[in-house]
Amino acid sequence: MVEIIVAPSYDAMSRVAADVMTTFINEKPHAVIGLATGTTPLGMYQQLISDYTNKLVSFKDVRSYNLDEYCGLAPDHKQSYRYFMQQNLFDHIDIDPRNTFVPDGVNENADAVCDSYEQNIIDAGGIDLQLLGLGHNGHIGFNEPDDVFSPYTHVVNLSDSTIDANSRLFAARSEVPKRAYTMGIGTIMRAREILVIASGPGKASIVRDAFFGPITPRVPASVLQLHQNVTVVLDEEAASLCE
Ligand code: F6R
Known about the structure:
Blueprint: E1 2-7, H1 10-27, E2 32-35, H2 42-53, E3 63-66, E4 68-70, H3 81-88, E5 100-101, H4 110-123, E6 129-132, E7 154-157, H5 160-166, E8 179-182, H6 185-189, E9 193-198, H7 204-212, E10 230-235
Parallel strand pairs: 1-10, 2-3, 2-6, 3-5, 6-9, 9-10
Antiparallel strand pairs: 4-8, 7-8
Helix pairs in contact: 1-2
The chain binds fructose -6-phosphate.
C-alpha cells in the first residue's frame, strides 16, 4: 500500500520525512535503516542532525546500509557515497561508525562485494525502514530502467541520463564512474517499510508514472506499488501531476 503525503515546500517535506524516521527509531532503537544519497535527502539529514542535537533521537544502536556506491571510488573520494554520508549525516550524529555500511567501492572483486553486502543485510535481520530518492528515469538506488527487476545487490552500468545528472558533481563528465554497486530491487522490496522522498517540478512526471502508472521494470520505482508499506513524501511541485 502506498500512502502519499504532500508537504507545502522542500523544507516541510524534509521535516515530515525526518519525523517518519525519528518516530521509527524512537520506537525501535536497534532499527536497521537503509539510506540514500543525492540532493533530495540533504534537508532531511539536516533535520535529523538537528533532532539529534536537540536530544529528540539517538542513533547509537541504529545500523545503516546505504543503497549504492560508485565502483572504483575510495571512501575519502569527495564524490563517493561513503564520503557523502560522513559529511552530511554520520559525522554529526551518534551512530557507531562500525554500524554504518556502504558497498566497498575499491574492492575489485565485485561478486564478493555484492554477496557480502546482501548477506550482511540478511544477518542484521533485514532492513526495517528504507529511504529512497527517485531518479528522473524512475531509478531507485542505481537500478536503471531494464527488462527485469533485479533480485539482489549487483553491479550496474550507469545509463547516459544518470551519468549526465551526476556529472554536475564532478569536475568533468568523463570523471563520473561508469559503474556502480546497488542494492537490487529485491533487496529494496524486502525492507519492511519504505520511505520515498521527491521534490521539485523535475520529478513531477516520474512521480506520476511511478505511483499511478503501470508496474514495469522500465520504471523501476513502479514496483513499489506492490509493497505493503510505502510512504511517499512530496513537495507540492513534485506532486503537481498526481490526480
Ligand atoms: C542515491 C540513489 C539515487 C537517488 C536518485 C535521486 O543513493 O540511490 O537513486 O536517490 O538519483 O537523486 P536526487 O535526490 O539527487 O534527485
